[in-house]
Amino acid sequence: MAEIRATRQERTDHERITDVRNLNAGDRILVGSRTKPIIVNDSGAREIHPLRGGPTQQHAVEASGRWSNAVTVLLVNRISFSTGDRLGEISVDMGAPEPVWRVTE
User: For residue 80, which of 91, 67, 71 has the smallest C-alpha distance?
Assistant: First the structure.
């Protein structure tokens, strides 16, 4: 697998992902300023209970690199805990939101 060297400017050629439900196992993605793509391994959801309205699902995927010492990261759709609305951002390892792109090759 060739390493992808992409700058933020070049990433306009890749599909921007704002909802992890659009990712499938085996998809190659770039996250934030990382230059090597990682592979989506698994997906799932958990039920959350916002302050207003009924329960809703928060979707997530796990992804990791295919090199030695690669770590697995959790990408989660950010949800408003007051309304349960999806915010259109993706958090990495439950931290700050980061941009995510699908890489085709």
Answer: 91
> pLDDT (tens digit, 9 = 90+) per residue, 28-74?
999 998 889 999 999 999 999 999 989 999 999 999 999 999 989 99
**Which range marks the domain in which residue 15 is found?**
10-100
Asked, for residue 4, whether it belongs to a domain, the answer is no
**What is the C-alpha to C-alpha distance for residues 21 and 75, in angstroms, rounded to an integer?**
11
pTM, full prediction: 0.83
Of 14, 30, 13, 26, nearest to 92 by C-alpha is: 30
Residue 41 CA, chain-centre distance (Å), reads 12
Residue 5 lies in a domain: no
